[in-house]
């Protein structure tokens, strides 16, 4: 166990050093955002009925789904600053302080449209906390073209899409918004990717999907103006790689399978519709490509640190 902890410390130390390159530092005047605006795909989304694309929490008293339980990372980040999305507003605030653009299936091109909508509405200001996480659906779309298109071609396309997302992040930052940007998940670690690897013998399909994820993030990180004053970068891909390797250390019993029953996939999945022995906090994955609440919480913790420490 001591050896495992030492290895983990090395991994986390390297991640921390890389993350520090993405901004870090210390705020002279604490950042107090008055609004949160979320762009991206289903990983960040809250639906209009309060359900999410993860394991939804069931209130033990009422036995019905409560949007407050098992929050997605953007929801936790909002709550950290006392902000509320209208999609989960149990106290019925007259004027919610969160704007949710993130949506199921969104790709980088859709994020550009989301940003266009906000620009046309009222733009951004220095008190806006803006979250951006996208790319998973781009990677899956590109992968679906393999082997008709070779790995090198798909890798170049993935990097170009990462660059395109970086352009949107810079656009938001230059307009005044303070951005918390997440790298895309390592999609090669998903149950979907592992199934693809098991059912195809032509190449290691999971490794290919990881490589597409890496190329996407390379394009994204090289494109953004990453001085920390406007953009706080969180390394979700690297955190996932560590969690996948050392699951037990993080309190997980399963890092390879989906927790939700096939008949009740997100957003229908709840604490009551999980496979045997699964819980929202001990599985890494809710569905074949969707993170569990435990991993959502890990992203949220990194986001809170960035938003609190970067010199916004």
Q: What are its keywords?
A:
single chain, 312 residues, alpha/beta, Rossmann fold, 5-stranded parallel sheet, two-stranded parallel ribbon, 9 helices, 10% strand, globular
Description:
The strands form 2 sheets. The chain has a 5-stranded parallel beta sheet, sandwiched between helices. The model is unreliable at 8-21 (pLDDT under 50). 41% of the residues lie in helices and 10% in strands. The chain is an alpha/beta fold and 312 residues long. The chain has helices at residues 2-21, 73-80, 108-121, 136-143, 151-174, 191-199, 205-223, 236-245, 293-309, and strands at residues 35-40, 98-100, 128-133, 178-182, 231-234, 254-258, 283-285. The chain has a domain at 30-237: SGNH hydrolase (Rossmann fold, 3-Layer(aba) Sandwich), CATH 3.40.50. The protein is built from 9 helices and 7 strands, in the order αβαβαβααβααβαββα. 47% of the residues are buried.
Q: CATH topology of one domain, which one?
A: Rossmann fold
Cα-atom radius of gyration: 19 Å
Q: Which stretches of 5+ consecutive residues score pLDDT under 50?
A: 8-21
Helix content: 40-55%
* The named CATH superfamily of one domain: SGNH hydrolase
Number of strands: 7
Tell me the strand order in the biggest sheet. Answer: 2-1-3-4-5
Give the percentage of residues in beta strands: 5-15%
Distance linking N and C termini = 39 Å
User: Strand-and-helix sequence, N→C?
Assistant: HEHEHEHHEHHEHEEH
Instruction: Compute the number of helices.
Output: 9
Mean pLDDT level:
93
Main beta sheet:
5 strands, parallel
CATH architecture of one domain: 3-Layer(aba) Sandwich
The chain-level structural class is alpha/beta
Q: What's the CATH class of one domain, please?
A: Alpha Beta
Overall geometry comes to globular
């Amino acid at each position: 166990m001591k050896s495992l902890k030492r290895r983990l410390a090395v991994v986390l130390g390297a991640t921390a050093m890389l993350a520090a390159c993405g901004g870090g530092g210390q705020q002279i005047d604490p950042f107090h955002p008055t609004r949160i605006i979320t762009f991206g795909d289903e990983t960040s989304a809250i639906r209009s009925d309060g359900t999410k694309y993860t394991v939804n929490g069931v209130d033990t008293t009422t036995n019905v789904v409560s949007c407050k339980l098992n929050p997605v990372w953007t929801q936790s980040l909002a709550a950290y600053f006392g902000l509320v999305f209208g999609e989960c507003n149990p106290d019925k605030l007259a004027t919610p302080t969160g704007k949710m653009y993130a949506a199921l299936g969104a790709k980088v091109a859709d994020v550009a449209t989301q940003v266009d909508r906000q620009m046309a509405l009222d733009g951004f200001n220095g008190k806006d906390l803006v979250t951006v996480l996208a790319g998973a659906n781009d990677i899956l779309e590109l992968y679906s073209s393999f082997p008709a298109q070779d790995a090198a071609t798909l890798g170049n396309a993935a990097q170009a899409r990462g660059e395109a997302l970086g352009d949107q992040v810079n656009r938001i930052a230059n307009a005044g918004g303070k951005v918390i940007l997440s790298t895309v998940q390592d999609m090669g670690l998903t149950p979907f990717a592992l199934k693809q690897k098991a059912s195809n013998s032509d190449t290691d399909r999971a490794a290919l999907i990881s490589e597409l994820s890496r190329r996407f993030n390379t394009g994204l990180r090289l494109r953004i103006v990453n001085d920390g004053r406007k953009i706080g970068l969180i390394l979700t891909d690297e955190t996932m790689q560590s969690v996948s390797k050392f699951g037990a250390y993080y309190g997980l019993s399963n890092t390879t399978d989906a927790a939700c029953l096939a008949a009740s996939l997100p957003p229908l999945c709840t604490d009551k519709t999980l496979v045997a022995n699964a819980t929202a906090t001990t599985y890494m994955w809710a569905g074949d490509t969707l993170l569990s609440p435990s991993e959502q919480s890990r992203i949220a913790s990194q986001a809170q640190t960035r938003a609190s420490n970067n010199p916004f």
